[in-house]
């Protein structure tokens, strides 16, 4: 993965293309023009790169570059385009046609009902992880439940849970200071009260601190997976994605260590790859968790597995 990423020089390799895009964008006179031109630039590269939707991406980039809402793009369609906005758009398009993720370019990503800042230090939150939030908030926990989100990244899961269950005490942890600062910034931005702790999994979590629920979307991709060479993941840190040859190293650690941080009756809820449910169910059962269940996403794929720690029963 590292070699793939280092072989892509966003600024260097795109010089000729950037000049061509610059001439194209500079010839535009209105938001309508610049939207069409951006869509054209993105569509022409679609054969080489996996774009979701050039039209949508063009709109996101134009709004970002000119700092306008979608409504302003319509109501201010006659306004002259500022030079700074055009430059910002050219840079954004030049990065995007080399595959750089939209979220990293514009610096934010929606998740649940939140708008989150993102950075290259951690994963771009995925809609897939909303199933973790849905499952967590549907659990029969007390009004003042104590919840831990391990490997919180942008804080996506922790903040979404807290936004839905404001009486729960929610803590997020991650192992890099830059990530903790990003999650804290997202808590302020979204006005949600979550504490974030620098911790290598449980290393800075006190054993006396018992949780009613531990959630985690840990790294779970096999270290030699071909998937790491495709799309956005090429640009995301492997520390957020991979976990040993079978992708299960961190999950094993969390399952084994997690039990001593759970209250009697507490839950462990893990996001995982769609082929890993069987292994994870087995690990949970062998460690002594009960009520082990797996939930599927909208495509019917196994995506989260839940176990309950009930040693006193
Ligand atoms: C798949 S990402 C999930 C991020 C976030 N929870 C989300 O769903 O968007 C995994 C996260 O685990 C973190 N992580 C990796 N190793 C860790 C460790 N040893 N201790 C704590 N966090 C770790 C990564 O930094 C990354 O933020």
TrEMBL record:
One of its GO terms (biological process) is methylation. Signal peptide: none annotated. Transmembrane segments: none annotated. Pfam families: MTS, PrmC_N. The keyword Transcription does not apply. Residues 51-107 form the Release factor glutamine methyltransferase N-terminal domain. GO terms for molecular function: nucleic acid binding; peptide chain release factor N(5)-glutamine methyltransferase activity. S-adenosyl-L-methionine binds at residues 151-155, 174, 201, 217. InterPro entries: DNA_methylase_N6_adenine_CS, HemK-like, N5-glutamine_MTase, PrmC_N, RF_methyltr_PrmC, SAM-dependent_MTases_sf, Small_mtfrase_dom. It catalyses: L-glutaminyl-[peptide chain release factor] + S-adenosyl-L-methionine = N(5)-methyl-L-glutaminyl-[peptide chain release factor] + S-adenosyl-L-homocysteine + H(+). The keyword S-adenosyl-L-methionine applies. Substrate binds at residues 217-220. Residues 140-225 form the Methyltransferase small domain. Keywords: Methyltransferase, S-adenosyl-L-methionine, Transferase. Its EC number is 2.1.1.297. Belongs to the protein N5-glutamine methyltransferase family. PrmC subfamily. NCBIfam families: hemK_fam, RF_mod_PrmC. Methylates the class 1 translation termination release factors RF1/PrfA and RF2/PrfB on the glutamine residue of the universally conserved GGQ motif. This is Release factor glutamine methyltransferase. It comes from Brumicola pallidula DSM 14239 = ACAM 615.
């Amino acid at each position: 993965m590292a070699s793939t990423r280092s072989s892509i020089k966003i600024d260097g390799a795109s010089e000729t293309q950037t000049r061509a895009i610059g001439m194209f964008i500079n010839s535009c006179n209105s938001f309508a023009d610049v939207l069409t031109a951006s869509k054209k630039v993105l569509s022409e590269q679609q054969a080489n790169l996996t774009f979701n939707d050039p039209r949508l991406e063009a709109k996101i980039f134009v709004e970002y570059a000119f700092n306008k809402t979608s409504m302003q793009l319509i109501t201010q369609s006659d306004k002259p385009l500022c030079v700074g906005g055009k430059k910002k758009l050219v840079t954004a398009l030049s990065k995007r046609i080399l595959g750089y993720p939209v979220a990293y370019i514009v610096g934010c990503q929606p998740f649940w009902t939140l708008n989150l800042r993102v950075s290259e230090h951690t994963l771009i939150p995925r809609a897939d992880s909303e199933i973790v939030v849905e499952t967590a908030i549907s659990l029969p926990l007390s009004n003042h439940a104590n919840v831990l989100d391990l490997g919180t990244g942008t804080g996506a899961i922790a903040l979404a849970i807290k936004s839905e269950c404001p009486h729960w005490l929610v803590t997020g942890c991650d192992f890099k200071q830059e990530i903790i600062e990003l999650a804290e910034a997202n808590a302020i931005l979204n006005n949600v009260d979550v504490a974030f702790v620098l911790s290598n999994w449980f290393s800075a979590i006190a054993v006396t601190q018992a949780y009613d629920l531990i959630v985690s979307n840990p790294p779970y991709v096999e270290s030699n997976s071909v998937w790491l060479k495709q799309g956005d993941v090429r640009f995301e840190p492997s520390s957020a994605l991979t976990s040993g040859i079978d992708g299960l190293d961190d999950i094993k650690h969390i399952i084994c260590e997690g039990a001593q941080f759970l209250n009697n009756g507490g839950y462990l809820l893990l996001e995982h790859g769609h082929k890993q449910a069987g292994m994870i169910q087995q690990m949970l059962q062998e460690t002594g968790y009960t009520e082990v269940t797996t939930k599927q996403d909208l495509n019917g794929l196994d995506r989260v597995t839940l176990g309950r720690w009930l040693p006193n029963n």
